[in-house]
């Protein structure tokens, strides 16, 4: 399958040649955004290390990839949990210390690595400092900054190549009916596997509904509390991502003062391009959205209706609080 991921294949081949000879570091850290094929790359490298093409992969009930091989362990958060506990890492350590079933070594894959608790990461550090013979650890993360420096410094770091917009469109249209993916890519970036999983119809509908909600706020047709209720009950993380990108685009267009085709802005926000934005407050607003997304992904038990209501209030009040005074 990985040979169809043209943006990954050249780098995969370089790593694969080392892994097949066991001439690599005991730990490999694959870094990159979601939806570009990091897990597939990790599974392929695990198969190369174990010298097998029988690394069984299937999709479970949560539409996630599972791996089945006696010498390979995939460590993920347990069902209905958002973190990897120290017990999971201790269990991995015990497994790596056992004799290989097929005589080709042992592999542990941790995904997403940033979901490890601090105690779990410290336990992993002990494995990295004194790794069992003929073992390979593969960690998958969106950003090395989300992991302790002590762990990152003991790994072979590899920034997984993100596909271009053209590669993303070509791959998607080779795997699905042809659709116009440009607006989706403009808003979310080039994340072909994630797009394939979610589907064009879902993503397009989500973009349209979120922009409709933002338009309704600006035109005073809906109140922040009403939109907050809708977002919390739907796909809040995606709505926050769209809001982040739209505000980012507004800042960019306002700073550059020229129309940039790829920086999409809905019509309701166009009126603010020539306004005197307070850029410091705007960037703080973006940080607020980003922090909220991180809290959401980590399963923080916040009053989300209140949080989103407060977040949307500046938009409802014609960007009040994001403008320069006078």
What keyword list fits this structure?
two-stranded antiparallel sheet; alpha/beta; 50% helix; 326 residues; 5-stranded parallel β-sheet; 10% strand
- Termini separation comes to 59 Å
Largest sheet: 5 strands, parallel
What is the overall shape? elongated
Give the radius of gyration: 22 Å
Tell me the total number of β-strands: 7
Output the structural class.
alpha/beta
Q: List low-pLDDT spans.
A: 58-65
Strand content: 5-15%
Helicity range of the residues? 40-55%
Strand order of the largest sheet: 4-5-6-1-7
The total of helices stands at: 14
Topology as a string of helices (H) and strands (E) = HEHEEEHEHEHEHHHHHHHHH
Q: Estimate the mean pLDDT confidence.
A: 87
């Amino acid at each position: 399958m990985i040979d169809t991921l043209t943006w990954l294949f050249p780098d995969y081949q370089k790593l694969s040649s080392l892994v097949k000879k066991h001439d690599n570091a005991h730990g490999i850290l694959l870094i990159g955004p979601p939806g570009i094929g990091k897990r597939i790359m990790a599974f392929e490298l695990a198969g190369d290390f174990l010298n097998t093409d029988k690394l069984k992969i299937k999709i479970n009930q949560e539409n996630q990839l599972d791996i089945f091989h006696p010498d390979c362990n995939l460590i993920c958060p347990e069902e209905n949990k958002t973190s990897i506990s120290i017990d999971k890492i201790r269990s991995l350590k015990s497994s790596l210390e056992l004799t290989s079933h097929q005589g080709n070594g042992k592999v542990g894959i941790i995904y997403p690595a940033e979901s490890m608790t601090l105690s779990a990461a410290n336990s992993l550090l002990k494995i990295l400092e004194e790794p069992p013979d003929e073992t390979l650890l593969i960690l998958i993360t969106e950003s090395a900054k989300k992991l302790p420096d002590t762990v990152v410094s003991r790994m072979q770091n590899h920034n997984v190549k993100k596909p271009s917009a053209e590669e993303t469109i070509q791959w998607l249209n080779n795997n699905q009916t042809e659709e116009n993916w440009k607006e989706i890519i403009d808003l979310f970036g080039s994340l072909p596997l994630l797009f394939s999983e979610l589907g064009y119809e879902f993503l397009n509908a989500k973009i349209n509904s979120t922009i409709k909600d933002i338009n309704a706020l600006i035109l005073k047709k809906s109140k922040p509390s009403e939109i907050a209720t809708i977002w919390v009950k739907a796909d809040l993380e995606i709505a926050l991502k769209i809001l982040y990108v739209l505000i980012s685009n507004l800042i960019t267009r306002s700073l550059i003062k020229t129309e940039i085709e790829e920086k999409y802005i809905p019509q309701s926000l166009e009126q603010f391009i020539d306004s005197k934005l307070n850029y410091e407050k705007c960037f703080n607003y973006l940080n607020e959205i980003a922090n909220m997304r991180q809290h959401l992904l980590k399963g923080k038990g916040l009053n989300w209706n209140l949080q989103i209501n407060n977040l949307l209030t500046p938009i409802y009040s014609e960007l009040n609080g994001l403008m320069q005074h006078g």
